[in-house]
Amino acid sequence: MQYQRVACGFLRKLFVILLVCIPAFAFAQEEEKECPFYGSLDFATKNIWRGIGNGDAPLFYPTVGFSKGNWDIYVWGAFAFDDSYKELNFSVSYSFSNFRIELVDYFFPEKNSDFFNFSNRTTTHSAEVILYYEPEAVPVHVLIGSTIYGDDKNEKGNNAFSSYAEVGYTHEFNGKNSVEATVGASLNKGYYTDFEKGFSIVNLTAAYTRVFTLWNYDLPVSARYAYNPYLEDSLFALSMSFGF
């Protein structure tokens, strides 16, 4: 729809401007000041999400967020350069102790899709509740997520409540390097297994990140490999992130 094209065009222009301004802005800051607003502009050669690849071309990912106290709110987008993939997500989360609970609205702009259609039967939105745990003693995380509403239907047209869980480990070394390993699984007959199979390992991921410093500005560059045993699919992506 017209307003969606305008919105996407605006986001693209905004983040191209930010991409140019961020290094100069970072260089000019002699003292880092606490600010509740944040953002980033990431680029990747491939979209990889929980062992699934999306799109046919490199993508850019704009993010704008607000964090205050235990609350965090952000908007995140994914746009392939050939328009083969588009995604726009809205998230609100609350952190306590070593836990974070998050509600994410996933929206996939498609032809004739209506952003303001929230009918459970016809919407192209889907809502997921995520519980994230990261203990202080060891560099691991545990994530459990379940889709509770929207565009997540099985063959009978009922909500599938697609559920996913993962365990990840991160090791940092030499101050600017880190390696990650993640194992993720579909917990039921849902989106990750084409609504046909129950528990299945769907995500085996390994990643390496190196943080480069330019003009006192940190630029993380990552290489990521993912294998999906259920789909028997291998995926590889390079990415970089500009944060502010």
What can you see in these coordinates?
This protein has one domain: Porin. 11% of the residues lie in helices and 55% in strands. It is built from 1 helix and 14 strands. The protein has one helix at 2-28, and strands at 37-44, 47-49, 52-54, 59-68, 71-80, 86-96, 99-107, 125-133, 140-150, 163-173, 177-186, 200-214, 217-228, 233-243. The model is unreliable at 17-32 (pLDDT under 50).
Brief sketch in words of this structure:
The chain has about 240 residues and is mostly beta strands. It has one helix and 14 strands.
Indicate the topology.
Elements: H1 2-28, E1 37-44, E2 47-49, E3 52-54, E4 59-68, E5 71-80, E6 86-96, E7 99-107, E8 125-133, E9 140-150, E10 163-173, E11 177-186, E12 200-214, E13 217-228, E14 233-243
Antiparallel strand pairs: 1-4, 1-14, 2-3, 4-5, 5-6, 6-7, 7-8, 8-9, 9-10, 10-11, 11-12, 12-13, 13-14
Q: Which short descriptors sum up this protein?
A:
about 240 residues; mainly beta; Porin; twelve-stranded antiparallel barrel; two-stranded antiparallel ribbon; 1 helix; globular
Helical content, roughly? Answer: 10-25%
CATH top level class name: Mainly Beta
Which architecture per CATH? Beta Barrel
For the record, what is the CATH homologous superfamily label?
monomeric porin ompg
Backbone CA Rg: 19 Å
Q: Poorly predicted ranges (pLDDT <50, ≥5 residues)?
A: 17-32
